[in-house]
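User: My instructor asked us to take a sequence, write out its structure as tokens, and then describe one feature of it. I'm not sure where to start. Here is the sequence I was given:
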Amino acid sequence: MLGEALSSVEEQLVEKYANEWRERLTSISWFMRRLNEKIARMANEEDECTGHFWEGRFKSQALLDEKALAACMAYVDLNPIRAGMAKTPETSDYTSIKKRSRKAQQTSSPNHPFQQVPELFNFAGNPREKMPEGIPMQLTDYIDLVDWTGRQIRDDKRGYIDQGLPPALLRLGIDPQHWLVMTQQFESQFKGLVGSAQQLKAKLSCFFRDSKQHRTAGIGACQQLLT
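Assistant: Let's start with the prediction itself. The structure tokens for your sequence are:
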């Protein structure tokens, strides 16, 4: 009897710790806390100082469709340009656009999935039936898109030139003015979920039986910029 009791207690403890670790491993907050702590310790040791390394808490935003994905990618790739740390995307350190541009210069077919940067998600080409895994646009179109966007946010450039719009904008149906807002103010415009209003409502319906009674944060910006 004692052995059976001990076995039952052990099983309960194992199940308890398993559930705790399961929750941790599926929590982005726990992952980022552990990651940030290690980086902060290393940086403080190198600089011989103490205190917080990061300016603020991380932000988590779910990208639900291709428009949201493209806007967020360009927003991140243009960070060094907006900060005055680089003059062109291909010279922006620590960005995917720099890696993609360099790889494109070294290959004869930059849009071919097998000739792109291995550690980055591929650009699979124009949207079509039986679409292979990857971002639904061509790599060269994305590079042109980021370059065009960077030119529009310069202080000495006003408006935009319709003739210069890259095919990616036309294919994705993105309004040029909305695109500029998203790629300059992505974090402030959107909340936890990013995508069309229809995508947001569909996503929320998976978690809430009555999505009408649940407040949809950020849906206004999504309706205005991603519809």
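For the description part of your assignment, you could build on this observation: The first helix runs from residue 2 to 25. Try explaining in your own words what that tells you about the chain.
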